[in-house]
Amino acid sequence: MSSQPTQSTGAISSSRAFAERFDTMVANIGKVIKGKDTVVRQALVALLSEGHVLFEDMPGTGKTVLARAIGATISGENSRIQCTPDLLPADVTGSTVLDRSTGEFTFRRGPVFGNVLLADELNRATPKTQSALLEAMAEKRVTFDGVTYDLPAPFFVLATMNPIELAGTFPLPEAQLDRFQFKLVVGYADRDAEVEVLRANQAQAAITALEPVVDIPQVVEMIDWAKGVTISDPILFYITDLVQATRSDPALLMGASTRAAEALMRASRVMAASQGRDDVLPDDVKLLADAVLNHRLLLTPDAQLREEQVSAVIDRILHRVKVPQGLRRESSVASDSSTEPLVATS
User: Fold this and answer.
1) Residues 113, 218, 227, CA angle at the centre, nearest 5°?
2) Whole-prediction pTM value?
3) Rounded to an integer, what distance in angstroms lies between the CA atom of residue 314 and that of residue 304?
4) Are β-strands 53-56 and 156-161 bridged in parallel, bridged antiparallel, or unpaired?
5) Does residue 95 share a domain with residue 170?
6) What percent of the chain has pLDDT over 90?
7) Range of the structural domain that residue 113 is part of
8) Do residues 159 and 291 share a domain?
9) N or C, which terminus of the chain has less Cβ within 10 Å?
10) Residues 6 or more apart from 34 whose CB is under 8 A from it?
11) Number of structural domains found in the chain
12) Does residue 234 sit in the same domain as residue 103?
């Protein structure tokens, strides 16, 4: 996308400036995604913590529009892959083509070289093609014919899977699911939000008129800023205790990995900054625990027979693991802000 941001938020000089820019991005996306503020915020947290998001949701709930809205908001380049069984790895990463004018082969870049990539119905692609995308996600680069090409920054993948029509699909194994930082569900809009969607799209699709509010260098600045948010030892131990508790819970056959703990740590830093704070509190971790852990855990056969849900197990672990105390701290956001300061809870 070549258009320039319509609004400049200035350089980030404090966590308050980070939160203000973050809220500006949320509000802009909210012009086309109605009634889904939590999902929008979590998706932006993933973007700014250099993660990727997997959506398992019904068709038509706004996943594609959300991806386009994020790309438009950050003045980034959007790309999309409609996954099918005949999709080849080169259709994702790119391939060499013959330049007839010079008689030489040149590399033509594939969709992974966009800033925001939507991989629609990822489980319909073959394992070989899935692996090509997941390798690019992990390495942030593509190697073809012995030459390595770096992917742009930011590089953000939103992949979707439908929970229905599973005939002929290739489910992602647990090792590949672990590559996604979040698993989110958009869900159907409520009555008022759905009416707002209809109003916004009466004349034309609202997404076509969405203007950027930040540019790519500003997004990179936010990513770098969030890495400096303080995360104390008690919070690191809290994250570790949560992850280790999943490995010993009797309802779980497979617990969360160390990669999950790292993902929760990175995301919690961005969540804290988005609230205008310079340090992470336990509530930041709690707010993101389900999105980070849900797709990484496997129920035992007995738990499946009891129809237990992974989310319920995570909630039980959050109540069982001791929360570090003495971390109550006022938010650095101005008192007249609509953002309420988070505090540690017991």
Assistant:
1) 90
2) 0.86
3) 15
4) parallel
5) yes
6) 60
7) 15-222
8) no
9) C
10) 189, 193, 194, 196, 197, 200
11) 2
12) no
